[in-house]
Amino acid sequence: MDEEKKKTNIVPILSVITACCVLFTAIQTVYVFKLSTGNAGIMTYTQGPREDEEKPEREESERRPSPAVDPEFSLEHAASVTDPDKTTLSTVEIVRLVSPATVSIYILGEVNGITSPVFSGTGFLISDDGYVVTNEHVISDTLEEGSDYEIVVDVPGYTRPIDAEVVGSDYQTDIAVLKVEEQDEPFEYVTLGDSDTLQVGELVVAIGNPLGQLEGTVTVGVVSALGREINNNGYTMALIQTDASINSGNSGGPLINSFGEVIGITNAKISSGEGLGFAIPISDVADEIESIINNGYVANRPYLGLTVGNVRSDEYYGAVAGVFCSSVEPDGPADQAGIQPDDLIISVDGVEINDTDDIISVRDNHVPGDEIPVVVERDGRRIELELVIGDSNDAER
Question: What is the pTM of this model?
């Protein structure tokens, strides 16, 4: 009797449990379906009310904007610099001003019997009679002995490419000047600014011919850093770093400030990273550009005719720290002065030499023909010499 009662009581319990399991399974099935269709999950968007449904009123506090909101904010204005004597321009105004003077450069050669572009770059006009500034590496192949390459320039507003010739170039600063054939009308040309006044974070605009196919491409960024030292074929250049996009074909193009002035010449990028472009500060090469136009080469640049290197105290066991002469140019200024390889350079023109930059600084404060004292240490003895500074152009000829 008791056993029958127990069996009777178990039946309803089992029924309830079974019903719960069925309900739970149904709920799980629906949830899994929603997950698979994107209607449920860790983060979901809920569908808003239909147009015919009444939308809930927001509280007044929800509609009030943050105190930090500034409806007058402009990124261009924020990144720009101000000058009471100059007008700050928008990017559109900068492009309108400089684009007509920004040119695309093509080096033409024979490919399978057909004359076509084999190299390309960018440049900008600096005078109404057709002088164009670009990079030396853009036109370097045309300078090789026996080269039959031709240079043509696409100038905005002209229906055909214009022939150009190389006025001169400078390997050390990666600068070249071209001259395009004069036309019936004077050319548009840029205004050069002062790159020495640039500030990190300042707005800059680049215009160029990336990949040799996209003439007049405009990119915008800021000055990321100043004085970035980059090795250029053995010469150290202090460049402007920018995150404005720079690509192959942009070389030689203008980097422009907020006033529409060219303050740099784009010449390099680091391909392993993003937003790492570089430009030559225009103030650093203004004299070289003028000298090329005046002489066909950079004249009166001081030249010592020696190669030096730093030796740290811990670099070699027992080595003396200092700046050593590693080589001298035969019959160059250093050779004529009696400087020899492995000499430890103690002082130049009375300035103590602790780093290679010390020698460069002394050299650049002189002109060809200046005579300066040099003290070296050789075999434990100090030797005083006299060096007559030479002209770098004489060495390059």
Answer: 0.68
Q: What is the pLDDT of residues 41-51, one digit of tens each?
A: 333 333 444 44
80, 104, 120, 137: the active-site residue: 137
Q: Which residues of the chain have pLDDT under 70?
A: 1-14, 16-17, 19-83, 233-235, 271-273, 312-321, 395-397
The architecture in CATH of the region 194-295 reads: Beta Barrel (2.40)
Assess whether the region 194-295 and the region 302-396 belong to the same CATH fold: no
Class of CATH domain 91-180: mainly beta
Given 154, 170, 174, 284, which residue is catalytic? 174
| Under 8 Å between Cβ of 306 and 332 | yes
Catalytic-residue membership of 251: yes
Name which of 76, 107, 105, 106 is nearest 92 in CA terms. 76
**Active-site annotation holder among 169, 251, 258, 347:** 251
User: In the chain, where are the structural domains located?
Assistant: 91-180, 194-295, 302-396
* Domain 302-396 of CATH type 2.30.42.10: yes
Q: Find tokens 């007509």 and name the residue.
A: 100
Q: Is 77 a catalytic residue?
A: no
